[in-house]
Each structure stands twice: as C-alpha cells, then as structure tokens.
Amino acid sequence: MTTGTVAPAGDTVAAPRTRTARRPRRRPALTLYTWLVLAWLLLPIAVMVLFGFNDTHSKVNFTWQGFTLTWYRHLFAIPNLTAALVNSLTVALVVTVVATLLGTPIGVALGRHRFRGRGSVDLLLFSAIAAPEIALGAALLSLFIVLGVPRGYWTVVIAHVAFCIPYVAITVRARMAGHDPTLEEAARDLGAGPWTAFRLVTLPALLPGVASGALLCFALSIDDYVITSFNAGRTVTFPLWVYSASRTGVPPQVNVMGTLIFVGGLVIAGANVLFSRRRAA
C-alpha cells in the first residue's frame, strides 16, 4: 500500500515552467562590417567582369566607353595571350593530378598510422606552406641551376607540384581523422583484401577531402606568379603575360579570360559542395 498526498478535487496542479529559447540579438555593426569586407573582396572581381564588356578602342582599358560583346567573340584574337592561357591551364591540370596522387597517400598515412618521424613530416609540410613564395622559388631555382636543368615548362610543373603536395596531404589528413576505421575492419572481416577494403570503403569516404585538395592545387597553380617567374625560363603563363602587358596596357581579353576562369572555379566548387552533401546524406 502506498501513501501520498492527493490534491483536492478543486485544485489544479501547476505545470512546470518551460524556458523559452532566447532569440539571438542582432548586431547591426557586425553585420555591416561583414558586408563591407565582402564588398571589398568582391570589388576587384566585379571590376574585372565589368571591363570585359568595355567597348574600348585602345590598349588602355581603364575608362568605361560603352557595353559590347566584341571581346567575347574575339577572345583568342591575341595569339601570345592564348598560348599563355593554354600553358597555365595545362600546367594546372598536370600539377593537380600529380600532386593529388602524391599527396593523398601521405595524408592517409599521417591520419591513420603513428610512426617514428611523424612529427618531422608534419613540420615539413607546414613549413612548406608557411614559407614565403619568394624563398621557395629562389630555392627551386638554385636547385635547377646546380643540377643543370634548363628552365621551362616542366620546371614550372615540378615547382608547382612541390608547393601543392602539402595542401593535398593536410586536407586528406583532416578528412582521415574523422573516418571510422571499424568500417574498413568490418570489410576485412567479410573477406575483402586490403586494397579492396581501401578502394570500396576508405577511398569513397575520403573523396570530399581529395577533391578539395585537388581544387586547391588547381587554384594555387593557375594564378601563381612568384614561383613561376623564378623557374619559367622562356615559358610564359597567363599571370606572367598579364604582368608584362600591364606596362603598355592590358587588353579587354584578359578581363574576359579572368571572368571565365572565375566562373569555372565557382562551378567546380559548387559541384564539389553538392557532391559532398549527397555523399553525406
């Protein structure tokens, strides 16, 4: 038999109070500051896009003279500029593939295993990222001179791969840190070999990190100027051509090409985000 206090028939039991969630306070100053910073970052890009439509009739493309689509129709009218753009695109593609293939196993090893010298490898990777580009470019130039390697297209590729590998390795390592190793162990228990378990279980989980590292390599390579200028020799890339043309006047085709590169980067980055979200879902 249990005893307890029974409320009278006419009384009501008060319900416990529930705390209402506080609405976040609006900070207009912080919002304004954020929009100002974004506007400052996007202003050069907006000017570049705008002056790609400028109806100029001189080499100096600094004064708005009207709207035209002429420069999109005559995008490849300057052979040297077209060749420089092709060099930048092909170098960026080769560097992206090579750096991704070399950097991904390093990231997997750092994220999965503990071995002697792991701290030294970490220090080396972060040092390569933190080092000034002028120091890295000068060091690579000295190396090529000592080895007697003529500077040109492939020295640019080697130089870009050298500073892109750490970005891929660190990105993949961060992705590997969040990977559950028991999934691969379960695949091994079900009869999958080491390579099969890595290819079917681990690699798909790492793909967003690998794709992010590859996109970062492409972006760093295609717009690099300092390291390229040290090791290019007679090879001219898009940034080198634009800098040399700035002394006499940058043609509107440069703005058009820059706009297309920017839009292409946005499309690829957006596709990567959608791909990552679908895999997460």
**How many structural domains are formed by the residues?**
2
Beta fraction: under 5%
C-alpha end-to-end distance: 54 Å
CATH topology of the largest domain: MetI-like fold
Number of strands: 0
CATH homologous group name of the largest domain: MetI-like
Structural class: mainly alpha
> What is the assembly state of the chains in this entry?
single chain
CATH class designation of the largest domain: Mainly Alpha
Residue share in helix: 55-70%
pLDDT < 50 runs, ≥5 residues: none
Succession of helices and strands: HHHHHHHHHHH
Shape type: globular
Largest sheet composition: none
Helix count from the secondary structure assignment: 11
Instruction: Please give the CATH architecture of the largest domain.
Output: Orthogonal Bundle
Average of per-residue pLDDT values: 84
Explain how this protein is built.
By secondary structure, this protein is mainly α. It has two domains: 42-76 and 254-281, no CATH class; 79-250, MetI-like fold, CATH 1.10.3720. The chain is built from eleven helices and no strands. The protein has helices at residues 28-51, 70-73, 79-112, 118-130, 133-147, 153-177, 181-189, 194-222, 226-231, 238-245, 252-280. The longest helix has 34 residues, at 79-112.
Structure in a nutshell:
With 281 residues, this protein is mainly α.
Question: Which keywords apply here?
Answer:
transport; 281 residues; ABC transporter permease; 11 helices; transmembrane helix; 2 domains; mainly alpha; transmembrane; MetI-like
